[in-house]
Amino acid sequence: MSSWNRSRASCKLTVAGALSLSALCGCMSGPNFTPPPATIDTAYTRAQLPQLAQGSELTVVTSLPMPAQWWTLLGSPKLDDAIRAALQGNRDLSAARARLAQAQELTRVANAALYPQMDLSAMAARQKYGAAFLGPEFKLPAFNSFSIGPNVSYAFDFAGGRHRTVEQQLALEQSQQQQLQAAALAVSGNVAMQALAIASAQAQLEALEHVLSDDQRNLQLVQGAFDAGSATRVDVLNAQSQLANDQTLLPPLRRQVALARHALALLMGSTPGNFTAPDFRLSDFHLPAALPLAVPSELAHRRPDIQASEAQLHAATAAVGVAAANLYPQVSLSATASLQANVLSQIFSIGNGGYGLTGSLTAPLLNHGALRARERAAVDAMHAALADYQQSLLAAFSQVADSLEALDHDQELLGSEQAALETSTQSLALTRESYSAGNSGVLQVLDAQRQNQEARLGLVRVQGQRYQDTVQLLLALGGSVPEAAGEGEGARTASSAQP
Fold this sequence. Notes:
Blueprint: H1 3-25, E1 59-61, H2 77-89, H3 91-112, E2 117-127, H4 131-134, E3 143-155, H5 161-228, H6 233-247, H7 250-267, E4 290-292, H8 296-302, H9 304-325, E5 330-341, E6 353-362, H10 370-436, H11 442-476
Parallel strand pairs: 1-4
Antiparallel strand pairs: 2-3, 3-5, 5-6
Helix pairs in contact: 2-5, 3-5, 5-6, 5-7, 5-9, 5-11, 9-10, 10-11
């Protein structure tokens, strides 16, 4: 067997022995991660929610599954198109996809440290030793030296620090995946909220146009009575004042529409000057008779922000193991096999092979408590991550409870506003007839119109608010966004590295 082949065989045996020894002696430092237990709560709120009970116009059902795209429950094709465009063009999602791709690559980096590392090295040198180096008997002239060959190194993971590092990085990767999902859910929810803001403001503008038309009718009615001598100049001024006051309600609503359109442009990755927002109307949206409601014990598994917090807790737990492993000795083994010669043209000649085997042990002796402090700091970070997880779970329950009670009150208020509008419309018609007959004054007409105006605008507002509270409920329940992985430049397949 040639020197080169013998060197390669020696390296193979060394690596095989290192892997076997590591498998026999390896252990895992630090605590093993256990997912926090599921909540035992049976309800989100103590309120009875009579308006959302079975048999009501709008109900919530725990046995109803969430659709693959939560926004389809609103029944708006315009909203479907807007959300799909935002999921593709939103810059925050592009950044989240890139961070996920970064985490996946870092997982591969951590996983690579579990295996032997091999490098190819080549060296060319010219050297001359001094007379005192080898003694007076040896006087070597300057000479050239050349070598080329692989270097193999392997660090034994006796304490499991490297495995904990891989575990930590995998958890961070999972956290980034869930953060991407949460970002996609937030983007889809914000698009829906801005679309509803446009639709609600447009509906209020239409209602206000109807109110202004009534103001014009009242002014004409009073002006006719004034011309006939049955009304005073004060009556005319009161009617004109009512018209002018109602006209001041138009600019704020138009401002709401403009701001919502600008927000939509930002969500879709565009500038307001290059974006044309869809003309959303409340009539474009339709609520189903029943909305899906996850049982409390399932909420943590449906909300991506909670799952991201759990993954962060997992990573913090693994970091304790990494810090604990640094307290133990570190053992590594390296082997080299190379061809050596003094003349470059003879480097591949038979008999020029050489090899080396080096083992090293590094153990902490005196570090003034730094390693123990790092371990305690990692434990503190783990406790903080647990508190963050618990807080995110509490916040999720609070959001669901808020949305449920808001929807229940919306249902109740909707019925009251509808009744108020019907009553005020009839009252306004009768008051006008009474005024025309001379049986009532202009102030009674204006008061009846004001009540009708408030009821009309109130009905529109509560209709829009009910849709917005529905969106808030679906988001609080962790609505599904299958497009979260997207097709952005940063999106890649999930890492297959395993600790």
